[in-house]
Specification:
Number of strands: 26
C-alpha cells in the first residue's frame, strides 16, 4: 500500500463534505494532539461501521479511545463510515474509507485497525471498508504482507459474527469482551509484539491468550469469552466530545454492567452475566470528573433498566446537585408500579418522556419472552405515568411470529383500557407503540427457536398491531423492516462463511452500503446468493435442539452461562411458564420484581427543594475569549463548552456549579461558527460560583491556569464587567469579489466610496444612514491577480453578519462560506 497523508486533501475538500466536513475534522475535546502520533510508536485506528452522526451518542467508542490513549506508547485514532454523498467524493479523489479523523493518515500508517460492530446489520459494510482502502479481504493474503495492519473486530455485536469464521475471514481476530482491563491487555500485547519485531501470526497467537479474543480462522474454544466481575470499576471520565449538536454537552454514565432480568430474547443481557451494580459513591465521583474533563451540562443515565439500581435515589440526588439536567431513559413498567415514589422523583428532575418495554402483546407471549411483568404492578406503572401528565409514553413491542387471534384480542383490550385510563386522568400523553421483529440470538434461550413463523407473517403482524393502535388514536412505528429483520436473523445464526460470501456478492451486485434500512434490491439479491451457495431460508431460520446446538460454529464460546440452562429456560418459555423469583441464573443478580430500592435520604421534600434551588439560582456570567483557528467552523455551543471545561479544570472547585452554555456573540451558518478572534461567551453558573467572579474579573493566576487548559483553542481574557457594550472590528479575507451596492441599497444605506490607495477604498455613510446602525465603518482592499478582498469593518447592532457576507461577495453556494475568513478584535 502507498503511504499517504490526506491532510492537504481534506483542507481543500472539506467544504464539499457533509456538514462541511466536521465529521472528518478531528481535534475534538480530549483527543491527543497531532504531534503525539510521532512520539507514540504504536498506532491503532478504531473504526465505526456507521457514520459519525449515527454513532455520536455511543459512549463506548469514546471510552475505547480513552482506554487506548491512557497507554503511553499507543496513539489511537478514529474512523467512520463516510456519508453516502461523501463516499462519492472519496471515490473521485481515490481516498480510502479507512482514514484517521485526527491524523488524516491512511490505513498504511497504523499497526492495528479495530472495527466496532454495534448492530449486526453493519457487518455488510466491513468488506466495503477494506476494499475501498486497498486492503485484501482474504485473511491469508493479509497475514503474508507485514505492511498491512492487523484487522480485528469487536463491539456489541461481535459475538454474532459466525459468518466471519474461516480461513479467508475479513478479519484476523474477534474480541467479544467488554472489560476495560481486557481491552488494555489486548492493545499492550499487540504493541509489545510489534516492538519485539514479531510477525503478525505470532502476535495474533499471543493476543488469543487475552480473555474474550479468538482467532477468526478457527472455531472459538471453551473459555475464550468467559465474562468476569471487574476487579476495579473503570468508568468513562475523559471521553471524546462529539461535534454533533444534539450530543454536545451530554455525557453517558453507565450505572451497571448487564441486567438482573432474564428475558429470553436479550442477547446483551445473557452475554453480560453476572450482573454488576456500580457503587453510588464511585458513580457520583466519576460523573463529576466527566463533567470537568468533557465540559458537560447534562448527564444521561445508561443501563438496561436504570431505576433497578438499588441506590437510584442517591444517584439521582447526587447528580442533580452537580448537573443542570439528569436524563433517565430505559425503565420497567413493573418497577415503576412497585416504586411509586420513582415517578415523583423523576418528574421533579424534569422527566416527561417515558420509554418502557412491554415486549409481548399478550401475557402468553410475555411468558414466552420471559418478560416477567407482574400484572398488578404493570397496571400501576401505567397509571403513575399517565397521572404524572407525562408528555410521551413509548411502549416497545416485539413481533414474535407466534401471534394468534387471541393475542391480538387481548392487546386490543389492553389498548382500549389504556385509552380509558388516559381519559380518567385527563391525560394528553402522546402514546407511541414501537414494534421490532424478534431476532433469535445465540447464547439466549431463544437461540433454539424457529424464526420461520415471523419470516412468513412479519408484515401481517405489523399491519394488525398498527390497526389496533390506530383504533385508539395511538401512534405506531416499526423500527425494523421485514427485510432488515431477515438480514439480521440470518447473520445472527450464520452456520458458516458461505453467508459472508453471499453478503458480499449481493452488495457487489446492488452497490449496497448499510445506512438505515436495506432498500428494495439488496435482500432479494442476498437470498439469491444464499441459495446459489446451497443455503435456503428454511434451513437458516429453522430451530434446533440442544444436541444440534452443540455443533454450531458459535457453540465453543464460554459465556459463563451453561447451554443446558438456556435449553431448560427455552422449554419453560414454550410451556408458557415463567422463571419468576425462584429460578435465577447463578450470580445473575436477582429479578427486578424481588428487589426494593434503598429509601431516599431526606425524602422527596428535600429533593424538590434541591431542584428548585438549582433552577432558580442560576446566574449568567459573561467572559471575553479570543478563539484561535482551531475553534473555527465548529458549533458556538461547542466553543462555549471548551471554555467551561478550561475553567473547571483550572479551578476544580468550580465544577459542581457550572450549569450551561447560554450564548456567543457571533452567528452560526448551518450550525457552525466561522468567526475567530474576540468573542463574548455567556455561561450559566450556580450562585456558589459568585466568589470566583468578584469585582467582575478573575485573578491573573486563574486566567493563566485557564489559558494553560485552553491550549490552542484560544486565549482567555477574563470576566467582562458590567457596563457599556463592547465594540468590535472585523477583519475579513475573501477570495470572492466585493460588491456592496445591492446590500446597502436594500438596507436603505447611502454611502460614498473614496479611493485611498491603489486598490484600497473607504466607505463613508451619508445622511441618516449611520442611524440605521448596520455598518459603522468600512474599509476594503482588493489584491490584483486572483481576486482577494481584504475588508475591515466595525459592525452596527443591526448587522446580520451571514446575510452581509452572502450579499456583498459573489458566493453561489453556502459551501463556499468556509473560504471567507473573519476575525474579530476588540476596539
Amino acid at each position: 500500500m502507498e503511504e499517504r497523508d490526506y491532510s492537504k486533501w481534506y483542507a481543500g475538500v472539506y467544504p464539499e463534505l457533509t456538514g462541511r466536513g466536521l465529521w472528518l475534522r478531528g481535534g475534538e475535546i480530549n483527543t491527543l494532539p497531532q504531534e503525539e502520533s510521532s512520539r507514540r510508536p504504536f498506532r491503532a485506528l478504531f473504526c465505526r461501521l456507521s457514520t459519525y452522526a449515527d454513532t455520536a451518542a455511543s459512549f463506548t467508542h469514546s471510552f475505547l479511545y480513552e482506554i487506548a490513549a491512557s497507554i503511553p506508547e499507543v496513539f489511537p485514532d478514529l474512523a467512520y463510515l463516510p456519508p453516502a454523498q461523501d463516499a462519492r467524493i472519496f471515490f473521485r479523489d481515490e481516498v480510502p474509507w479507512l482514514i484517521g479523523t485526527q491524523t488524516k493518515y491512511g490505513p498504511d500508517k497504523f499497526q492495528l485497525i479495530g472495527f466496532s460492530n454495534s448492530i449486526i446489520q453493519e457487518l455488510v459494510n466491513l468488506p466495503q471498508f477494506l476494499r475501498n482502502s486497498g486492503i485484501p479481504l482474504s485473511r491469508g493474503e493479509r497475514l503474508k504482507k507485514p505492511e498491512i495492519p492487523l484487522i480485528i473486530l469487536g463491539g456489541a455485536s461481535a459475538a454474532f459474527t459466525s459468518a466471519l469464521l474461516g480461513q479467508d475471514s475479513w478479519v484476523d481476530g474477534i474480541f467479544v469482551g467488554d472489560n476495560p482491563q481486557d481491552v488494555k491487555a489486548l492493545l499492550e500485547c499487540c504493541r509489545a509484539g510489534y516492538a519485539a519485531g514479531k510477525n503478525k501470526p505470532e502476535i495474533l497467537r499471543e493476543m488469543s491468550l487475552v480473555n474474550g479474543f479468538f482467532l477468526s480462522d478457527a472455531l472459538p474454544s471453551a473459555g475464550s469469552a468467559r465474562p468476569r466481575v471487574r476487579e476495579e470499576v473503570l468508568l468513562p471520565e475523559k471521553g471524546v466530545v462529539s461535534y454533533c449538536e444534539e450530543e454536545i454537552g451530554t455525557g453517558y454514565l453507565p450505572l451497571s454492567r448487564g441486567c438482573r432480568s432474564m428475558c429470553s430474547f436479550c442477547a446483551e443481557s445473557w452475554l453480560r452475566k453476572p450482573f454488576q451494580q456500580y457503587p453510588v459513591s464511585i458513580l457520583i465521583r466519576s460523573a463529576l470528573r466527566m463533567k470537568t474533563e468533557m465540559g458537560l451540562e447534562k448527564i444521561d443515565l445508561f443501563g438496561f433498566n436504570v431505576s433497578d439500581h438499588l441506590g437510584f435515589y442517591g444517584i439521582l440526588s447526587g447528580l442533580s446537585e452537580i448537573f443542570r439536567s439528569v436524563s433517565i431513559k430505559s425503565q420497567r413498567f413493573d418497577v415503576l408500579g412497585r416504586e411509586p415514589l420513582l415517578i415523583e422523583y423523576e418528574s421533579a428532575a424534569g422527566k416527561s418522556v417515558y420509554s418502557c418495554g412491554l415486549e409481548g402483546i399478550s401475557s402468553r407471549l410475555r411468558h414466552f419472552l420471559n418478560k416477567d411483568l407482574d400484572e398488578k404492578h404493570l397496571r400501576s406503572g401505567f397509571e403513575l405515568i399517565l397521572g404524572s401528565k407525562a408528555r410521551q409514553l413509548k411502549i416497545f413491542l416485539l413481533a414474535t411470529g407466534l401471534e394468534e387471534e387471541e393475542d391480538f384480542k387481548e392487546f386490543g383490550i389492553f389498548l382500549a383500557g389504556l385509552k380509558q385510563q388516559m381519559k380518567r386522568f385527563s391525560s394528553c400523553t402522546r402514546v407511541v407503540l414501537s414494534l421490532t421483529p424478534l431476532v433469535r440470538f445465540p447464547w439466549t434461550p431463544l437461540e433454539f427457536d424457529s424464526a420461520l413463523g415471523l419470516h412468513g407473517n412479519c408484515r401481517a403482524i405489523s399491519a394488525r398491531i398498527a390497526e389496533l393502535a390506530e383504533e385508539q388514536h395511538f401512534e405506531f412505528r416499526q423500527s425494523m423492516s421485514a427485510q432488515e429483520w431477515l438480514l439480521s436473523q440470518v447473520l445472527a445464526r450464520a452456520p458458516d462463511a458461505r453467508v459472508s460470501v453471499a453478503l458480499l456478492t449481493a452488495a457487489d451486485n446492488t452497490g449496497f452500503v448499510y445506512h438505515h434500512g436495506t432498500g428494495t434490491e439488496f435482500i432479494p439479491a442476498f437470498i439469491s446468493a444464499l441459495r446459489e451457495s446451497g443455503l435456503e431460508e428454511g434451513v437458516l431460520l429453522s430451530g434446533f435442539d440442544l444436541e444440534q446446538s452443540r455443533l454450531k460454529s458459535w457453540a465453543g464460546l464460554d459465556t459463563g452461562v451453561k447451554r443446558e440452562l438456556l435449553w431448560d429456560i427455552y422449554r419453560e418459555c414454550l410451556r408458557g411458564g415463567s422463571l419468576g423469583a425462584g429460578k435465577r441464573v447463578p450470580r445473575a443478580g436477582g429479578c427486578p420484581g424481588q428487589l426494593r430500592l434503598k429509601p431516599p435520604e431526606g425524602g422527596l421534600d428535600d429533593y424538590l427543594d434541591l431542584i428548585k434551588e438549582q433552577r432558580s439560582a442560576e446566574k449568567a456570567v459573561v467572559f471575553r475569549v479570543d478563539f484561535a483557528e482551531r475553534a473555527r467552523g465548529v458549533p458556538a455551543h461547542y466553543r462555549g463548552l471548551v471554555l467551561a471545561r478550561a475553567l473547571m479544570k483550572a479551578e476544580p472547585r468550580l465544577a459542581p456549579y457550572f450549569r450551561r452554555y447560554i450564548s456567543s456573540l457571533w452567528p452560526e451558518s448551518e450550525g457552525l461558527c466561522w468567526v475567530t478572534g474576540a468573542d463574548i461567551v455567556s455561561l450559566g453558573w450556580g450562585k456558589q460560583a459568585d466568589q470566583y467572579w468578584r469585582e467582575g474579573k478573575c485573578s491573573s493566576d486563574l486566567i493563566a491556569r485557564v489559558n494553560a487548559e485552553l491550549g490552542n483553542w484560544g486565549v482567555f481574557r477574563g470576566v467582562l464587567p458590567a457596563g457599556p457594550e463592547k465594540e468590535f472590528s472585523l477583519s475579513i479575507e475573501s477570495p470572492f469579489e466585493f460588491q456592496p451596492l445591492e446590500y446597502f441599497k436594500e438596507h436603505g444605506v447611502k454611502y460614498e466610496m473614496r479611493k485611498e490607495a491603489e486598490g484600497a477604498y473607504r466607505i463613508f455613510l451619508q445622511g441618516d444612514s449611520r442611524k440605521k446602525d448596520v455598518v459603522r465603518e468600512l474599509f476594503y482592499k482588493v489584491t490584483s491577480g486572483n481576486v482577494q478582498t481584504q475588508l475591515s469593518l466595525i459592525p452596527g447592532k443591526k448587522l446580520d453578519l451571514n446575510e452581509f457576507l452572502f450579499a456583498v461577495f459573489l458566493i453561489l453556494d453556502k459551501k463556499n462560506l468556509p473560504f471567507i475568513h473573519v476575525k474579530a478584535e476588540a476596539v
